[in-house]
Amino acid sequence: MKASSANGQAGSWPLAHHRGALVPKQQATLPMGSIALRYGVSVFEGIRLYRQDSGGVVPWLLGPHLDRLRNSCRLMGLDPLCCDEVPSIIDELVAAQEIDADGYVRVAVSAANVGGIDEEAETALTVTIAPSGRKRWLARGEGIRLGVSAWQRPSDAVFPNAAKNISAYAGPRLALAEAKRAGFDSCVLRTAEGLISEAPTATVFLVEEGTRIITPRLDDHVLPGVTRAWVLATARALGYQAVSDAVTEQRLAAAEEVVLCGTGLEFGPVRSVAGRELSGWPVFPVTTALVDAYFDQVRGRAPATAVDWASASGRAR
Ligand SMILES: Cc1ncc(COP(=O)(O)O)c(C=O)c1O
Fold first, then answer.
1. Which atom of ligand 1 is nearest the CA belonging to 223?
2. Would the CB of 255 count as within 6 Å of ligand 1?
3. Which of 19, 81, 152, 180 lies 20 to 30 Å from 121 when distance is taken between CA atoms?
């Protein structure tokens, strides 16, 4: 069952930890009548597993991901207790499949019982790991052609943006499909006020005047991203000014550098916004400094940036 490894990619890892047992991934299923499938109640996390220079693999920023998962559970009326088991389950999956390459851990807490809309949810915990190396943006130095969607992310009065719940992806999925049909690689969605919010599965950052790094505010309907908090703190540690602020389409298109970031994507430098090539492309010194710091840390070559996770997630407010 040992997965072969080349360039951080590997063969398939067939096991899931589902409802307390190791099973083949195809057997990790929920009934059609479950609250998860009828009403879209299933919260999840994506966590990167990075191969260390010293050997072995380590889940990157596991603690902050689990804190966000617990918070997602609470926001969606799910018992967060099962989240405590996740670290040992990841270890079990790594050992059982002899995983020794970069991967992507998906942890889901789902309302697994069959029931009506007003019924209390019973949770099922599912953890899988898939091989996952660099996407083509970092692997081949390609730049993302970014569209600015007319689709909006909901305000917190419509849906709690801090809940990483599957239903929150249905609208952004439509926005991405529309952007791809229009010839873009990805897109950013807006707030109801027309400000830039974020991409379907990633945070957006921009660089102004070579030193100022900006990302939309938590109040601009974004998911409190783990990578977002890491970038803000690391940029400051590198001597840049890094703040959250209101971002208009004009401001985004006028930036020297724009980069999408998130656990799955890692970093996706943007070459154009709504068809306009960015002034800095393809020389992105600030993005390059962040990407270098990121891979030094995830591989265990440098200590992880100290981040105030509570305030970064908005939970300290
Ligand atoms: C909607 C959304 N925004 C932002 C992100 C980036 O968040 P993180 O850095 O915590 O992976 C993700 C990825 O999980 C996401 O799904």
1. 3
2. no
3. 152
Atom of ligand 1 nearest to the CA of 263: 11
Q: Tell me the β-bridge partners of 144.
A: 270
Give residue limits of the domains in the chain: 5-132, 138-313
Residue 224 CB neighbour total at 10 angstroms:
19
Report the alpha-carbon distance of residue 209 to residue 252 in Å, rounded: 13
pTM higher than the cut 0.90: yes
Q: What is the pLDDT of residue 314?
A: 76
pLDDT of 311 reads: 83
The answer to whether residues 272 and 143 touch, using CB atoms and an 8 Å cutoff, is: yes
Nearest-angstrom CA–CA distance, 68 and 83: 10
CATH code assigned to 138-313? 3.20.10.10
Query: Which residues lie across from 254 on neighbouring strands?
Result: none
pLDDT tens, 286-313? 999 999 999 999 999 999 999 999 888 8
Give the three-state DSSP class for 41.
Answer: coil
Atom of ligand 1 nearest to the CA of 68: 10
Q: Using a 6 Å cutoff on CB, does residue 203 contact ligand 1?
A: yes
- Which ligand 1 atom minimizes the distance to the CA of 45? 14
The best mutation among 186, 227, 244 to test binding of ligand 1, ranked by most ligand atoms within 8 Å of the C-beta, falls on 227
Query: Exposed, middle or buried: residue 300 (CB in 10 Å: 0-12, 13-18, 19+)?
Result: middle
How many CA atoms lie within 13 Å of 303's alpha carbon, on the beta-carbon side?
A: 4
Say how many Å lie between the CA of residue 261 and the centre of ligand 1. 8
The fold for domain 5-132 equals D-amino Acid Aminotransferase; Chain A, domain 1 (3.30.470)
Distance CA 212, CA 72 (A): 31
Interval between CA 107 and ligand 1 midpoint (Å):
14
